[in-house]
């Protein structure tokens, strides 16, 4: 039996959630779904294996790049613990989408978690989450998941919130911009999940390829990539009503 941590975490929020869940569940292998040069179809999980699958929620759906790469993997009845991480708004259809796609890959889904993290674009929503309270809740979820693993033979089907057809995801119009401070070190180009930043011209951006995951902003050592202040302010105002109150974490088993 092998335990895997498979995640798409452009700005670190998903990885933080999985770190808490896996703190007391030793795992063997990490699979970073943000790496554009990995052949994910090479991953074939056996029935005895356990895979924690963590993805961010983009507009109420699983981030498109994340779900595309999850769908490339194959499982022969391996146990999946699925985790949808959202920025203190809502996860809408994302958990249902992830559950359905995991089953289509051959996984047996044993638990589903919706967890909060700091919003990747408007950082004042869900700031510093997962915080102390979240970590206590996630640790409690981890103990429940241990029971699922121990008594795997007793697994039964369960429902998660969401609707099908899934809500339409139209992308995010806000794209990072390069400032004059850019020294063309190439770190953002190397780590962009979708190769929207050319290696030979890292001070540019292919807006058609960009998925607004904010990885380039997160990894830039001198903060040379930023968002348009006016667009960011408009996004903050538009999201204020739905994102200000503290949203709860949820587990389904």
TrEMBL record:
Domain 4Fe-4S ferredoxin-type: 174-200, 201-230
Keywords attached to this entry: 4Fe-4S, Iron, Iron-sulfur, Metal-binding
Any Pfam family hit: Fer4_7
SUPFAM superfamilies the record matches: 4Fe-4S ferredoxins (SSF54862), Flavoproteins (SSF52218)
Top-rank taxon, per record: Bacteria
InterPro entries, per the entry: 4Fe4S_Fe-S-bd (IPR017896), 4Fe4S_Fe_S_CS (IPR017900), Flavoprotein-like_sf (IPR029039), PSI_iron-sulfur_center (IPR050157)
Coiled coil: none
Names of the cofactor(s): [4Fe-4S] cluster
Function: Ferredoxins are iron-sulfur proteins that transfer electrons in a wide variety of metabolic reactions.
Name assigned to this protein: 4Fe-4S binding protein
Organism: Candidatus Enterococcus murrayae
